[in-house]
Amino acid sequence: MRNLKNPSMFKLKSNVLGDASFSSFDDLSAALSLKIAELKEKPYLDEDGYPTDAALDIISLWNADVDDWFTFIEKLWYFSSHGWNSAIEQDENNPIRQVKRYYISTIGWSGNESIIKAMEQNEVYLWGTTWVSSRRGGHYVFEYSLD
Hints:
This protein is α+β, with helices and mostly antiparallel strands. It has two domains: 1-41, no CATH class; 44-145, no CATH class. Helices cover 40% and strands 25% of the residues. It is built from six helices and six strands. A four-stranded antiparallel beta sheet has the order 3-4-6-5. β3 (84-90) and β4 (98-105) form a beta hairpin. α1 (25-39) packs antiparallel against α2 (53-61) and α2 packs parallel to α5 (110-121). The chain is globular.
């Protein structure tokens, strides 16, 4: 969130980074990248197959390639053979543009629901730019342009 008293400062409230101020977007991005690198040293799944806090924090802080974000998430997704599908398709709003579209269903598993909540927390970088729709029953559609 921008600090209105000092528009050149970026403020961030996060359960991972705490209250932090950054003088530029690049400083914020660098801090996120460092934290993600630190978190990647920790286990991603617990002994019961649920995503760990470290994995969920990585998802919520991710600030790099969108395809890598989805690849990381898919590796954590429980029963991805039935709840995860992606395809390169024609953009519904621009027929000459192609998008990569993800059809994701939580299948009611609480670990997958936790992943979706972490994805929602990444609203600035990735949720806000990839989320297309969701409907009752834990069904989500995401997409991004390949152009």
